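Course assignment 3, question 2. Fill in each field.
Student: A.L.
Task: Predict the tertiary structure for the chain below.
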Amino acid sequence: MPSPYHPAVMGFAERTPAATALQHGAVEAIHVHAPGPRPQPMVAIEEAVLEAGTGIRGDRYAGLGIPGTHITFIAAEGIEAMVARTGIALTPAETRRNVLTRGVDVNALVGRRFRVGDAICLGVKPCTPCDHLESVTRPGVRAALSGQGGLRADVLVGAVIRPGDQIEELDD
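Answer field:
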C-alpha cells in the first residue's frame, strides 16, 4: 500500500516497486501516557514492555482492543523538518507518540510487519494529528505535523524495547 503522504514532506526517498531494500532504523526515545487525565504530559521511560495484543504495559491506552491502539511511532526526521519549516518548537514527548524513531519512514510501514528490538509490530494506520494534540501544545501544531504525524501499530510479538534498539521492516 503506498504511503498517503508525499515523501518529500517526510524527507525520505519515494519507494518504488523496484526497490528491494527494507528499512532499518533505531529507537531514539520511548514515552508512555501515564494513568490519569488525558491532558497529562507523557513520561519518558528507559524501557517498555510490549505485550502482544495489548500494547505497552503501564500505558493508559494499553488493552483497548481497538486495532492500531497498541503503540504509536513518529519519525524524528519528521519533527525536525516541521520545526525547521514552521519554527514551532515541539519536543518528542509533546507529539504524544510512544516511540521516537530515526532512519525509518514510519508512513511506509502501514500494512507492514516490522521488528522493534525483539518485538514484532504491524503498522495499522497513520496517526493523524488531532485537535487534542494542538490543545496541549501550541497553535499550528496540528497543521504543521499533517502528513508526518506518525504511525499507529499493533504488537504481534511482545518483548522489552529500549532506546538504541534496531527497527527493521520485515520481508513478508
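Instructor remarks: The mean pLDDT is 84. The radius of gyration is 15 Å.
Grade: pending
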